[in-house]
Amino acid sequence: MPTILGQNQYGKAENRVVRIVRDGGTHHIKDLNVSIALSGDMGEVHHSGSNANVLPTDTTKNTVYAFAKEFGIESAEQFGIHLARHFVTSQEAIHRARIRIEEYAWERIPASRKASRSGGAEKAGHSFVRKGQETRLAQITYDGNDWQIISGLTDLTVLNSTNSEFWGYLKDKYTTLEEAYDRILATDVSARWRHNWTSDAQPVPNWEKSYARTKRHLLEAFAETYSLSLQQTLYQMGSRVIDSRSEIDEIRFSLPNNHHFLVDLEPLGLKNDNEVYFAADRPYGLIEATVLRDGAEAGIPVDLTNL
Ligand SMILES: O=c1[nH]c(=O)c2[nH]c(=O)[nH]c2[nH]1
């Protein structure tokens, strides 16, 4: 039976790179997990085993570490752009590069009161604690002409202890859910947003600032929305980002509804006045949607689990 080779890509996945910049006693840290996927003229390696067009995955790994040294890591997006441009422009056989990056944030450990009283700095220059918040994400794709930059985050866990209701929904014979007029709303935000920077001819956004502001808008919209459903909160978060960040045309969310159920304390002779909850880990409602700038076309895949 004749067969044909379909979509294929290769590269080194999950290159963990930590880059320290030493500015005297004050050090700066960037901590990334970088995955490379290259494609192009790769028919022969699959058909005959000729490696003539194959840049070894080992080389792609070395390039990550060499670029961290040579160019530094200004932002995940900028680092990915350097890598993608390099692979596509330096090897004729490579036509497309996709770089996926996870970034783990660190913050400085505050100095003890004793240390700062005795003349030391308020914060240590070289001691960090990993931030317990979200993981930052970036995916950079380049085909030699056009760029697609998708930034995002995952596991940004947030909770509103009031200002959330859920009622007025469809009811059938299987519905047992009680209407809620004051419930906990909690989710682990997973979001991806697409930048409208697609060409080297456009001015390059400030990726660090763009990320920080976008995260702030997401948090502020979550906190400030009086929610009648998680769907409504999602749309408010998305439109806040699109309205406030001109460099972003599309944002997609995957929001688990982390249910908090009031515990029945009556058998224990106690009253539960919206105070004690069971935090269920599963099953969870899963609310997913894209918010687009009017006129923009959707480019972020529907399923974020692998992005
Ligand atoms: O915000 C919510 N949206 C729903 O669609 C839903 N469904 C449900 O059982 N609880 C909730 N909460």
From TrEMBL:
The keyword Chaperone does not apply. Its EC number is 1.7.3.3. 5-hydroxyisourate binds at residues 57, 166, 183, 231, 257. Signal peptide: none annotated. GO terms for molecular function: urate oxidase activity. O2 binds at residues 57, 257. Pathway: Purine metabolism; urate degradation; (S)-allantoin from urate: step 1/3. Pfam families: Uricase. Keywords: Oxidoreductase, Purine metabolism. It comes from the Bacteria. The active site is at 12 (charge relay system), 57 (charge relay system), 259 (charge relay system). Urate binds at residues 57-58, 166, 183, 231, 257. It catalyses: urate + O2 + H2O = 5-hydroxyisourate + H2O2. One of its GO terms (biological process) is purine nucleobase metabolic process. PANTHER family: URICASE (PTHR42874:SF1). Catalyzes the oxidation of uric acid to 5-hydroxyisourate, which is further processed to form (S)-allantoin. Belongs to the uricase family. NCBIfam families: urate_oxi. This is Uricase. It comes from Streptomyces qinzhouensis. The lineage of its organism: Bacteria, Bacillati, Actinomycetota, Actinomycetes, Kitasatosporales.
